[in-house]
Amino acid sequence: MTTVLSFPSPLHPSNDINTYLFSRHSMLPYSPDFLWQIESGIVRTLTWFEDGSVVTLGLWGDGDIVGSALSTMNPYDIECLTDVKVKKLPREQWHEATEAMVLHIQRSEEFLKIVHCKQIESALLQLLNWLAKRFGRAVDEGQRIEMRLTHQEIAEIIGATRVTITRTLSNLKKQGVIFVHERFMILSPDQQAFWHYEI
Known about the structure:
Blueprint: E1 10-12, E2 16-22, E3 34-40, E4 43-48, E5 54-60, E6 65-66, E7 77-80, E8 84-90, H1 98-115, H2 120-135, E9 136-139, E10 142-145, H3 151-158, H4 162-174, E11 178-181, E12 184-187
Antiparallel strand pairs: 1-2, 2-8, 3-6, 3-8, 4-5, 4-7, 9-10, 10-12, 11-12
Helix pairs in contact: 3-4
InterPro entries: cNMP-bd_dom (IPR000595), cNMP-bd_dom_sf (IPR018490), HTH_CRP (IPR012318), RmlC-like_jellyroll (IPR014710), Tscrpt_reg_HTH_Crp-type_CS (IPR018335), WH-like_DNA-bd_sf (IPR036388), WH_DNA-bd_sf (IPR036390)
Pfam families: cNMP_binding (PF00027), HTH_Crp_2 (PF13545)
Domain HTH crp-type: 118-190
């Protein structure tokens, strides 16, 4: 049985000393000399302003790479939104991750489009649709987003207040666009009018 630690510990020291397991809400350490490739789980990269306001730079899952070498942000952090299994990629192996780096750029642009949407409900619908595509699975009720985000975390992603997000999510629930089951959000497939927010 593997113990989840907030500080990196090799899962299989004798087989793969570069694989680590992190618990939800822990921070991945980083260095300009290595990147992390996510084998399972979801992380967010973030920075913040002088007043303490958090800015989410991206959300990343299986196969994605993250690390300070991919960013010029200072400060810069990598937060685990779920339990996460990652593989360390030292600089001399970066040439092996070309496809993942291309995907990193593409997904950064998708994310940028969402956070620059000025209308909050539209931005929220785009975000939920994107999350459902990237981190979701089909269930009888629709597409279930396989991650739990607090209203505050959603607000930080799209640049809104927590109160506004709570109110907007409540409206979407009343419209039948989304459902919540066991704290997971489910997007209804029957609300076709809202699926034009796809990226």
